[in-house]
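re the bet — no i am not wrong, look at it urself. input seq straight from the record:
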Amino acid sequence: MSTSTPTITTTPAKSFKTLLKAAFCTAAAATALVAGGTTAASADSLSALGCQTTSARLTSTSGNTYSWNCSGAHYISVSAQKFQAGGWSGAVYLADGRVIWFCDFDTKYLNGARTTEVYLNATKPARCP
């Protein structure tokens, strides 16, 4: 009779990505505290943002509000009414395959579309003024 060791399957890329994001957000918050500032600033093409005080907000058709203030991919599965970019640029990905691009302080009306991801850019893309 042989014994076998159970196999644990992990996704190292995702685990590392999550760890890196958490470390970057913590470092950004610590830098803001040491510098004594909590001023919100939108990402520009020269400086990368990890986290900032202003949030991007998604309002669902049921009235719930979801908000994020760190760059990266944020996965969500809700029917959305409205997206407000705050000081962020990026994209909202919909279940039907559409991508809604946004720039700083944009408001996008989603009219009940199923949202799967909100991606917040660390730097402002060239397509944004």
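see?? Confidence is low (pLDDT under 50) at residues 1-41. told u. also The helical segments are 12-35. so pay up
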